[in-house]
């Protein structure tokens, strides 16, 4: 038997579940909760605020022969109920992630998706150990479900074909992990979980493989986190705000995960606020009522104290400015100033660098604000102002002050538009982008900027003289002068009406006149493209004296236009226009190497 004398000082590891939108994070949490309830009857698992506590005995019952409870002195696992890396990055503790360990859920048929990559980035950045749950194994064609069984026992019941199809998908995921820089394998082949990521095939629907997932999570926590789980049980509580909520009868409350020490009713606490740290006194610590008492009117019961790790709702005055993701600290027998400084220091770690010009960013929590700022930095989008909270009229006013038009934008992650800002938005000279997926939000903004640039280039392109080279056809003089009318073939580029045209004598360009009309098969047209034969009217020259049949003529491109075409619009013009431009520039630069540069 393990010595359990110090068991009460080891806290429950905090587990976060993250992954792509519909890969099954929520259903996996529901399955784990559901199996835990049926395993230990309702009393065994305790619902916390924003978290579910599954004790070791219940886990051991669910995992069957996979777990010998005497091998463990950790009390169980605390699952954060709000799945997704949104909550994961919100949850900070002393500069790292609040979660001690994470489950990355990947749909076994779908592999890595953009949010999977995003989640992996966050895990890498915070250095959080994680396990991959390869979900939806039961959707493998020909799968024969073994409800709630460990995955290897379930695999024994499958046909060779089903097993090899599942393996193919699993190796695909292991390959994708390897591309992301993580060495991984099926969990029962992993010798050292510190060097390799374990992949657990499972089904949230049938419960197959869920025992394995719990076993791996317990094993990892026990082996690598025991030191971190050792806490001062009676010490001043520390936690992180999950959500700020108005509750009838209590006013503004904070749903908090406590990861160290204890919080007691009546304690003075310091909470990170939008402007300054908030100093207040705990009026009530609230927990959801046990499942069997759900019939009573009140949703919550009051408790006298809460020890780590736990989710609790704290009711206290002045919490309306509290921020999701911000630290919560109990003062107890310490100087208040010191605790305020600690909270300030922790908030300062999340300061977003802002620029003189850029976009306005609003996010629902500090963590997601930080994740947004990182993603925007990678996309090289500058930030003018970044704040936690819904979109208010002053955000619109600030966005309108941006110097560059494309920066007159608000990017809102998981936030609402306040009612009093709606009318302002209608009359404002700025764009609002909102989404609940960071990469989607940034994608939408980048697409908007690209479309703007394209539209601007199109207007520039409309005004720019396009290059062209064309040849006067033999026996196609219809009129000798005033204007000269001749048949031509366009060799490259675009001949446009009302442009000056001329010839190159050696490296000298000689203007011969201006086009005053283009006809194609008897109809007036504004331009003619490479390969077309048209008749053109030229004001100025006389055929036989200034120009001859068989001559090659060029559109005269002003130097400023040549520069724009070469430097900014090269990708926007056609290949044959590029060819005409290159030949024109080459001849011009024989005389003046810096022409059009």
Automatic annotation (TrEMBL):
SUPFAM superfamilies: Initiation factor IF2/eIF5b, domain 3, P-loop containing nucleoside triphosphate hydrolases, Translation proteins. Keywords: GTP-binding, Initiation factor, Nucleotide-binding, Protein biosynthesis. The keyword Isomerase does not apply. It holds the Pfam family GTP_EFTU. GTP binds at residues 19-26, 81-85. GO terms for molecular function: GTP binding; GTPase activity; translation initiation factor activity. Residues 10-226 form the Tr-type G domain. Function in general translation initiation by promoting the binding of the formylmethionine-tRNA to ribosomes. Seems to function along with eIF-2. This is Probable translation initiation factor IF-2. It comes from Halorubrum laminariae. The gene is infB.
């Amino acid at each position: 038997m393990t010595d359990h004398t110090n068991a009460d000082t080891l806290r429950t590891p905090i587990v976060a579940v993250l992954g792509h939108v519909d890969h099954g994070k929520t259903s996996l949490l529901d399955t784990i909760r559901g199996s835990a309830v049926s395993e230990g009857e309702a009393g065994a698992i305790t619902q916390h605020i924003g978290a579910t506590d599954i004790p070791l005995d219940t886990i051991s019952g669910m995992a069957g022969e996979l777990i010998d409870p005497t091998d463990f002195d950790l009390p169980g696992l605390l699952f954060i109920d709000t799945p997704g890396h949104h909550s994961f990055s919100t949850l900070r503790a002393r500069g790292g992630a609040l979660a001690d360990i994470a489950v990355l859920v990947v749909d076994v048929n779908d592999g890595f998706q953009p949010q999977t990559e995003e989640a992996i980035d966050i895990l890498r950045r915070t250095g959080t150990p994680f396990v991959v749950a390869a979900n939806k194994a039961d959707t493998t064609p020909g799968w024969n479900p073994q409800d709630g069984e460990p995955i290897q026992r379930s695999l024994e019941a499958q046909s060779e074909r089903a097993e090899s199809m599942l393996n193919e998908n699993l190796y695909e995921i292991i390959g994708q992990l390897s591309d992301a820089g993580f060495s991984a394998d099926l969990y029962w082949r992993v010798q050292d979980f510190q060097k390799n990521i374990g992949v657990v095939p499972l089904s949230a629907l049938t419960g197959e493989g869920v025992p394995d997932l719990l076993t791996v999570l317990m094993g990892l926590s026990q082996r690598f986190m025991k030191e971190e789980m050792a806490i001062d049980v009676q010490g001043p509580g520390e936690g992180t705000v999950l959500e700020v909520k108005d509750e009838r009868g209590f006013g503004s409350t904070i749903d908090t995960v406590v990861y160290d020490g204890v919080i007691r009713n009546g304690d003075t606490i310091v909470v990170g606020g939008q402007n300054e740290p908030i100093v207040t006194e705990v009026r009530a610590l609230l927990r959801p009522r046990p499942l069997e008492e759900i019939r009573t009117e009140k949703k919550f019961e009051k408790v006298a104290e809460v020890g780590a790790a736990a989710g609790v709702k704290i009711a206290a005055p002045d919490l309306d400015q509290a921020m999701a993701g911000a630290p919560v600290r109990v003062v107890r027998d310490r100087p208040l100033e010191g605790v305020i400084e600690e909270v300030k220091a922790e908030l300062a770690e999340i300061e977003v660098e802002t620029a003189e010009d850029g976009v306005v960013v609003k996010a629902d929590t500090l963590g997601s604000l930080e994740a947004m700022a990182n993603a925007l930095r990678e996309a090289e989008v500058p930030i003018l102002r970044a704040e936690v909270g819904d979109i208010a009229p002053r955000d619109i006013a600030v966005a309108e002050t941006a110097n560059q038009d494309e920066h007159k934008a608000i990017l809102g992650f998981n936030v609402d538009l306040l009612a009093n800002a709606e009318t302002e938005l209608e009359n404002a000279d700025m764009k609002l982008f909102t989404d609940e997926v960071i990469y989607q939000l940034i994608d939408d903004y980048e697409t908007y900027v690209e479309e703007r640039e394209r539209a601007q280039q199109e207007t520039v392109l409309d005004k720019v003289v396009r290059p062209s080279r064309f040849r006067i056809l033999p026996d196609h003089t219809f009129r000798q002068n005033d204007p000269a009318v001749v048949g031509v073939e366009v060799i490259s580029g675009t001949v446009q009406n009302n442009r000056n045209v001329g010839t190159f004598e050696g490296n000298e360009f000689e203007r011969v006149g201006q086009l005053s009309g283009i006809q194609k098969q008897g109809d007036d047209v504004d331009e003619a493209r490479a390969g077309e034969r048209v008749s053109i009217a030229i004001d100025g020259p006389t055929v036989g004296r200034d120009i001859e049949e068989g001559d090659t003529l060029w559109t005269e491109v002003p130097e400023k236009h040549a520069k724009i075409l070469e430097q900014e619009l090269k990708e926007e013009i056609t290949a044959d226009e590029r060819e005409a431009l290159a030949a024109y520039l080459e001849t011009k630069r024989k005389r003046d190497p810096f022409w059009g540069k």
